Predict the structure of PTTG1 interacting protein.
Amino acid sequence: MASSGVRGPTPRWGPTLGGAALFLLLLPAAAAQGCSQNTSRTCEECLKNVSCLWCNANKMCLDYPVTKVLPPSSLCRLSSARWGVCWGLFKEENPYARFENN
């Protein structure tokens, strides 16, 4: 089968990639100011930023310590810490720290 020699328009990726690159450059700056600005507000406002941790005991919005699976007690007691959702509760009296939905 012979080719007709007609080709469709060549896609132009320049502006699309440029916009994506600009977004990625601005993303860390937006995330850096996110957590601490929500201290003394609400858990819901804090956790809109998925990289934040809410400490219910002192109403602080903190950067989640990503190098740890669970936040250390020096940052916030496990029973007061919230991340992802505001309604969960860890019971520390259990050595296996079960999770309860309150």
Confidence is low (pLDDT under 50) at residues 20-31. The chain has two helices and five strands. The beta strands are 52-55, 60-63, 81-82, 88-90, 99-101.
